[in-house]
């Protein structure tokens, strides 16, 4: 069976949208085999609104590695798996921004978006499909929304509970 990499970024905010944290969960044959939580020094200040959402301050990341320093370790998880995110367009934009900022390369990715799938296949009582709503609907423990690792965990559980037919990924070029 193909490996599945579930990921989520938290960012500096809307102005520069640089990565400050990343959660990655890798599954093989439905079993979790890797779990990563990494803070990044984005090289720019974290906007107050973003800090209120995810709780990460500029001081928290000042001594952390940059995305470029960590990419050689992270890249294989993205390029050798089906890559899954909730609101994948957002997270892929962040990944693309980081690759562009540091002149990093990435092979085309096989992507599956749980948000897009949920909008097409899941009828929640509120007719909303935010991760928090779907986690409650499927009885998934989302301890800290907007913590990249907790969001990745919830997205992984959501994938396995919500998707019951074979996945047809999109191909994205970064």
Tally of alpha and pi helices: 7
Using the alpha-carbon principal axes, give the shape. globular
Output the radius of gyration. 16 Å
Strand line-up in the sheet with most strands: 3-2-1-4-5-6
Give the helix/strand class: alpha/beta
CATH topology: Nucleotidyltransferase, domain 5
What's the β-strand tally?
Answer: 6
Beta-strand content: 15-25%
CATH superfamily: Ribonuclease H-like superfamily/Ribonuclease H
End-to-end CA span: 25 Å
Run of helices and strands:
EEEHHHEHEHHHE
Overall pLDDT confidence = 95
Question: Which CATH first-tier class would you pick?
Answer: Alpha Beta
Question: In total, how many domains does the architecture comprise?
Answer: 1
Under the CATH scheme, the architecture is: 2-Layer Sandwich
Taking the sheet with the most strands, its summary is: 6 strands, mixed
Uncertain runs are none
- What helical percentage do the residues reach? 25-40%
Give a concise summary:
The chain has 174 residues and is of the alpha/beta class.
Helix and strand layout, with pairings?
Layout lengths: L3 E8 L7 E10 L2 E9 L8 H7 L3 H4 L5 H13 L2 E4 L2 H14 L7 E5 H8 L9 H7 L10 H15 L7 E3 L2
Parallel strand pairs: 1-4, 4-5
Antiparallel strand pairs: 1-2, 2-3, 5-6
